[in-house]
Design brief:
It contains five helices and eight strands. With 163 residues, the chain is an alpha+beta fold.
Amino acid sequence: MKLALVLFALALPAHAQPLKPWAGGATPALELAGLDGKPQRLEDYRGRVVLVNFWATWCAPCLEEMPSIERLRRSFDARRFSVLAVNVGQGPRVAAEFAEKLGLNGFNVLLDREMKVSKAWGARVLPATFIVDPDGKVRYSHFGALDWSRPDIRALIGKLIVE
């Protein structure tokens, strides 16, 4: 039965696949400057579920999934759910223009210009997204574009919020 589920999941397009439980060990460190130049740390978001998304402006699948991440963000209370959008390898002007163009006003855009954090998180493919629970532990990951506003994903995040 498990093999059939795995084969079914692999047959689905990336945007429709389920989130994978995290098996990468301890949560990697995340401390980066935001667009305003001020440092932000994942630890600053304890008590919230956090979606950490690694992206770049040249990444077409990143562009495709960003609106669904914004819909997901708007569907939850900001005191319980946050998005950290980690731009990989680009500068603040480029990242800010991209976020403004897509209307991503509620995202906390962070800059990983040297790509050290994305490497530590294993984000070798973009977009790469991780769901962190209120205790600061990575619980799920997904590589590639996904419709983050899907009911099953909203339900999964809702469960993490109330755990």
